[in-house]
Amino acid sequence: DDELDELDLLYNNQCRVPVKGGVENVHGKTNILIQAYISRAQLHSFSLVSDMSYVNQNVVRLIRALFEVVLKRSWATLSS
User: Fold this and answer.
1) What would the pLDDT profile of 65-74 be if each residue is shown by its tens digit?
2) In this predicted structure, what is the pLDDT of residue 63?
3) SS (H, E, C) the chain
4) 7 close to 32: Cβ distance less than 8 angstroms
5) Can you tell me where the transmembrane regions are (predicted)?
6) Cα gap 17→50, rounded to integer Å
7) What is the pTM of this model?
8) Closest Cα partner for 55 from 20, 30, 18?
9) What is the domain range of residue 21?
10) pLDDT digits (tens, 9 = 90+) for 2-61
């Protein structure tokens, strides 16, 4: 499958943090797409472009929520 091949390529070239579950797992795919988004990777598979669009819409809210948790728990070194 073209999508799995591209996910493997993204995992090997763009992901600095190890991904549990691999590319076949939904959680692994999401993790790879988040890391690819942060790395500004170019995608070629239409289905991955569509999934990346969904990730783009939600990852900002997720990171903002993590930032708020860090502030509320006074983990200031993590919030800077």
Assistant:
1) 988 998 888 8
2) 87
3) CHHHHHHHHHHHHHCCCCCCCCCCCHHHHHHHHHHHHHHCCCCCCHHHHHHHHHHHHHHHHHHHHHHHHHHHCCCHHHHC
4) yes
5) none
6) 23
7) 0.79
8) 30
9) 2-79
10) 899 999 999 999 999 999 888 889 999 999 999 999 999 999 999 999 999 999 899 889
Total domains in the chain come to 1
The one-letter amino acid code at 13 reads N
d(CA 66, CA 43): 26
Q: Which residues contact 14 (CB under 8 A, 6 or more apart)?
A: 32, 35, 36, 39, 41
Longest dimension (CA), the chain: 46
Write the CATH number for 62: 1.10.3380.10
What are the structure tokens assigned to 23, written together?
């590319």
The amino acid sitting at 69 is V
